[in-house]
Write a structure and sequence with these properties.
By secondary structure, the protein is α+β, with helices and mostly antiparallel strands. Helix content is about 10%, strand content about 30%. It contains 2 helices and 9 strands, in the order H-H-E-E-E-E-E-E-E-E-E. It has helices at about 10-20, 25-30; strands at about 50-55, 60, 65, 75, 85-90, 95-100, 105-110, 120-125, 130-135. Strands 3-4-8-7-6-5 form a 6-stranded antiparallel β-sheet. A 3-stranded antiparallel β-sheet has the order 2-1-9, with no helix packed on it. A hairpin with a 7-residue loop joins strand 3 and strand 4 (about 75). The N and C termini lie far apart (about 50 Å).
Length: about 140
């Protein structure tokens, strides 16, 4: 597939290192690895803000759509429109829907149809593929 942002593996590795991405981010985002459940740095973050692609910075999720799915990965009920591309994944003897960044193709995780209303969706994401930006509080 062709994406708006294309880089070599070496360029992605250098970019992730420069951003201080967590260990494993390259394998997760560029080679569809999965971090172990309950190990990601955003699994228990509940602050106001937004989640962006660690590779290209594209806005993916608003923190208000995050919920505790009890699965061990950050889960969201709704993505920012147009931010994510869905791909059929038949690896590991299963049929799932993989989610990737629409701009750079970074593997994010998978989407399932067992989420809360009103969408019924659960975007199950790897923390290593995300970059959280907290809302800035205005000075008093």
């Amino acid at each position: 597939m062709i994406y708006k942002i294309e880089k070599t593996d070496e360029q992605w590795q250098d970019l992730l290192a420069a951003k201080g991405a967590e260990r494993g981010a390259f394998m997760v985002t560029r080679h569809a690895a999965t971090e172990r459940p309950y190990t990601g740095k955003y699994e228990k973050v509940w602050a106001d803000g937004s989640y962006h692609c660690i590779c290209c910075g594209k806005l993916l999720f608003d923190a208000s759509t995050k919920f505790d799915a009890g699965c061990g990965w950050p889960s969201f009920s709704q993505a920012v429109p147009g931010a994510i591309k869905e791909i059929t994944d038949t690896s590991h003897g299963m049929r799932r829907t993989e989610t990737v960044c629409a701009d750079c193709g970074a593997h994010l995780g998978h989407v399932f149809d067992d989420g809360p209303a009103p969408t019924g969706l659960r975007y199950c994401m790897n923390s290593a593929s995300l970059d959280f930006k907290a809302d800035q509080k205005p000075d008093s």
